[in-house]
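Dissemination and training. As part of the outreach component of the grant, students in the summer workshop were shown how a complex can be specified as a set of sequence lines and then modelled as a single object. The example used during the hands-on session is reproduced here so that future cohorts can follow it. Participants entered these lines:
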Amino acid sequence: MALTFVHTADWQLGKSFGFLPDDQGVVLQRARDEIVERVAGIAHQAGAPLAVVAGDVFDGEDPPEVRVRQILTRLAGAAPLTWHLLPGNHDPARAGGIWDTVRRIGVPANVHLHLTPSTAEIVPGYHLLPAPLVAKSSSSDPTLWMDAAATPEGHVRVGLAHGSIQGFGSLGEASVYIDPARARRAGLAYLALGDWHGLKEIAPSTWYSGTPEPDSFADNDPGHVLVVTLDGGPARVTPVASGQFRWLSREIKAERLTDLARLEADIAATPDTVRNWLVELRLTGRLPASALGNIEARLQVLSGRLFALRTDRRGLRLGTSQDDIGALGSAFARQIAERLKPVIDGADETAARRASRALELLIAIDGELSERQAT
Amino acid sequence: MKLRAVRLAECGRFTAPVALEGLSGRLDILAEPNEFGKSTLLKAVRFALTVRHTSTANEIKTLVPYGGGAPLIEIDFDCGDQRWRLRKRFMAQRKAELTALDTGATLRGEEAEARLAALLGGENGKSQLPLLWVAQGETLKPLAVGDDARPLLDIAIAQEMRAIAGGSDTRRMTEVVRSRLLELETSKGRPKKWGRYHLALQAVDNLTGQLDDASRRIAAAQKQRDALATLREREATLRHPEHRRKLEVDLATARKAIAEAADAAARLAAARSDRERELAAVASARGELDRLDRGLATEARLQDELGIISALHQETTTALEALRPRAVDAAALCGSIRSAVADAERDLDTARRGHLMRQLKEQHAVAATRLTDARDLDAARASSAAEAARIPATEALLAEVRRDQTTMELLSARLSASAASLIIQYLPGQDGRVRIAGTSLANDARHELSAPTEVEIEGIGRLTIVPGGATDLADVRKKLSDLQDRLAKTLARAACGSFDALAEATARRNSLVTTARELAARLDGLTPRGLGALEAEVATLAGQIAATADGSTTLPIGTVADCEAALVAVKVRLAAAEANATALASKVQSLERDDVRTSAEAAGLKRRLDELRPELPARDGLATHRATLAGRFTEAQARLDEAEWQVAISAPRAPDAAGLTAMKRSEETALSAIRGLDLELSRLETEAAGVEGGLRAAGHDDSEAVAGALTERLADARDELARVEDEVAGLMLLDQEIKAIEADVRDRYQAPVLERLQPYLEMVLPGGALTLDGTLKPTGLTRSSTAEPIEKLSDGTREQIAVLGRLAFARLLADAGHDVPLILDDALVFSDDDRLGAMFQALHQASTAHQVIVLTCRMRAFDGLAGTRIAMRPWRPD
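and obtained this result:
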């Protein structure tokens, strides 16, 4: 009998976003909380009776109890969908941890906690082999036991684990390494992985679903859940977008401001959508002094259109061409700029940055003084 | 600009109109005494050129004479190519007229003021004029170019420079940069409190603190969870059924071992009891056998001993009988030798006494002879002393007489010297007619007259002859007379008639005294301890002789040495005899003791034999009796071996007390382990509940999420801090660049001034170099590589520098085509003659480029200043 289920992971419910103002952070947190309903919706649409969450359901081990109750209530509300939750490195299954709190509060009937490495028949003919984490890091492969785990003959084995695939060079958070060949070794029809927040196929039957709601500027294709169908053949895996917010990181070179223009155009074209965009721009290169004001203004406009805009201008230097210097209003400012030029153009990066900043200030002050004189 | 004439009316002390005419436009000198009005003159010129005629400022009123009036000032000056006449009246009937003397064109009022300002270089030009006009007493004031004077100097200097930096732009930029910097940092480089920098630092610190707190809470919770996990693991291990089963098995094993040990112990006890019994039986049999053997052995031994003792006793008796007579003979011999020793001792004593007697007699004879001699000497001494005592003439008397005689001779001599000599030579038939005190003087006789003497001349009269120096002759005579009396008395005391007799008697007395002393010395040599001691010695010796003789008249036969030798020989014999006798006596005693002992021992042995014999069996049944006893022993021994065997095999099975104790302990240990397991489980449950409770009590404060958020916020705060620090660094860099530019400009700006100043400085302060600040004010003088601040220089040097500075400014302006007269009103009052001369040289040099007007009250000192002397003359304003 075929089985369709949803594979998701790394919800990290309760995660904070300190780089944003509190009100914006709350919005993102709420979006994460709503993962439950969105995943339930996707499961319902796909006809999946169950969903497996491959670790890091919670962001920490000690969220306020009221929040845990809220989450459990939401999970319960998704019934008849059955949830199979696996502890990850953020929420390991250890004494006094989050799962003790969950059990103490009361596990909803449609929620199954897989806190020990033991097989569990999730639906008739299908056994789940979970590899829960009991600590934030481990030197041993938690899926090792799957190889020798006994299941009834003919039953389909589905693995559920959280960690980094060896040799993948993954940027997962967990210091836990998993053999990429585990699915084959353990006779798994599918190995559902968590920890890597991006969508990633390791092997035809080994996938990272990624986090359903992006939570960083890492360009690794987050914001999905996987609809997995097992019907005796190779697993059929269908990514489904589930994210509410989009996180973008771009480098804008001063020599190619067209990139900024393109981004602005994209943003301008989808004003409603981009309200849920968080954009990180790294400005690098040499910018003519005269263009600095323009760039600032454009970034201001962008900031107003997006959910959040972060700019990193540490790699930006002001230009020191004759035109750049000649654009300064007073002779004295030009004289100072001439003295700063060789330092900005020099090899000493620290001194160049400092001199560039000095030039920026000089331009600003010169502009102010010119305005005052004009008025 | 050059002033050519100044005319005043109703100005200060110049109530009547006066004029200074004929200024050369080069070096013009007005030398007038104090209170001439030189300062009024300078003030009037300044007001006329720089103050509007309509001004009512208080300073204008200082020009009004005491009795009132409206100051009128007229100045002829050259400016450009024209000569102008400026006439201004202040206060009442104010007016201003400016006339071009070449054309006669006159401007009045505001037009005149405007034109005048234009001629002087505008308002700025007017205001900078006072820079070069030094009023009295103002030389030592700091020379600084103020902002109002700067522009003209700037223009002048600008002609020397290709470009000028800044000006107002510079100042504004500098102000903004520095004020922005001060908003962020204090002047000491610390973040300004509550400024952005400070706040950024605070934010980082606060967030770091919060993150540390969150991390600590996380770590604490982590620690508690780890502890809880450990407790749970331990509990799971202990709750495992296998764990308890093992403990129960241990307990059963311990109990079984105890039971088995008890059985073995009982068997061992029985075997030991048997062994003890058989041991006793063996000991008894052995004892009987041993007793029989011992008895027989004892009998034999006693018999042997008795034989030996008896033989010994016999030997002792025999030896004793042989030795006793010899001992008696030896004792007798000792007695006879002792008698011989006594005789020899008596002979020796007698010989010694005789020797002593001879010695005493010899000593007595010597002492007696000495005594006789001593007595003779003593008698002779006494005789001499007595004879000397009878002679009254002493050395003292002799000396006294000698002194008196000497004095008398001196006095007589003096009298003689003072005496006059009278010698009469009678004429024939006149002898005897001259008399002194009735005594006729003989013919040709010499008469010494030491006192006034009356000489009677018969038939003629009397002459009184008074010798010379007779004033004290009476005293001399008195003294001489006294001395003569005393001399007589002294001789009488000495019983001598004359000095010679006294001398002789004294000599004789001295001789007797000397003789007595010599005898006394000889007596002392003979009797060092005195005559009495010698007499005592003689008496003592006599007594010893008597005592030694002791009535004995027998003389010894031999000498002392012979007697001593004889005594020694007999003593040696005695010693040998006594030794022999002693040895024999000792041997006899020893033999007697042995005899007694052996006799007693033999008796004892017999007695013991008699006591032993009844205990022993008869000789004919002895072997049978012994065999019986041996058999009993053997049987008992066999039974004992069996009992030992039983003990040996039972002992290992029965633990000793320590082993039993150990078994009991094992049982206790097993019981404790089971009890401990329950307790431990209970404890673990309690502790785990406590930790869980603690975790719950600590609250689910979402520390990890908070820490995550804080980490991001801290990163942002650090970025912001970095931006602020970049801004600070940028502003500091700008400030640094501004300062560098200012320094560069200053250096270039000062150059023209210093260039003009240096030649003048070289005249007055050779080798000196002046430093200026940004306002061109002198700040220091360097001479011989030593830099001195201006304020530390003497008043004279400072006034010279002040004047030279003005010369430099005037020269700079003149070179730029903006020459202005330099006016000095009593500006060199502290300078010495040499420096004054050097300053004259400088003034003269300066006057080749621009007008220098010197007003001075030091008329003689300034005689050396070459220039045009100007003087006040009356003036008719109309």
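Chain A has a mean pLDDT of 89. Students were then asked to discuss how this feature might be tested experimentally.
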